[in-house]
Amino acid sequence: MSTRLSVFPLGGALLFPRMHLPLHIFEPRYRAMVSDALARDRRIGMVQPRGPGDPPPLFDTGCVGRIVDVEALPDGRFDIVLEGVARFRILRELDVTTSFRQVEADLEAVADMETLSLAGRSSIEIEARRFADAQGYAVDWEAVSRLDDESLVNGIAQIAPFDVASKQALLESPSLADRAELVVQLMQFYGRHGDDAATLQ
Q: Which of 53, 63, 121, 122 is the most exposed place for a label (fewest CB within 10 A)?
């Protein structure tokens, strides 16, 4: 079933169903978008730009987020938290008079929570420790060990400093096992190459 979505193009900002994404909204057009969403269904489509331009072209796949927490600041900015609802695929961009972009999109059915094999879970935890050490991140590993598989994999996909194309590949992964395998490959690649890493195609 297709639906109309206001979209927020933001490179490197991934959202997955059941995950949360905090955002600081300061540009006038996106402040207008948040105000509009709050007045309607509280939904915003997060999608990455595919390249430069004004407006930039968009990737076809994004994730709808529902505003579950909002703080309206005195100067008109917002601090919001989105909760992922479902991935979507853009069918077409709509010709609108609003300052923010809107699309017609198909929402995907949300799968049940997935789990990894013991070997898959172990592999991603080992690689995450190596990657965090290489990047100099301080991590509460006890808290990490308590995360369910989906939160662990998708959390790394959201916060790790991968390039836009890599992040998009993670968002589009058909299963949690596929995404976990790609996350491990990306951590190995970026762990070796650091800031000099070229885009991993």
A: 53
**Is 68 exposed, middle or buried, given 0-12, 13-18 or 19+ CB atoms closer than 10 A?**
exposed
pLDDT attached to residue 24: 97
- Phi, psi (degrees; rounded to nearest 5) at 190: -70, -30
- Cite the DSSP H helix spans in the chain: 28-39, 118-135, 141-145, 149-159, 164-172, 176-193
Q: Is 52 in contact with 64 (CB distance < 8 Å)?
A: no
Please, which pLDDT band fits residue 190 given cuts at 50, 70 and 90? confident
What is this structure's pTM?
0.91
SS (H, E, C) 58-93: ECCEEEEEEEEEEEECCCCCEEEEEEEEEEEEEEEE
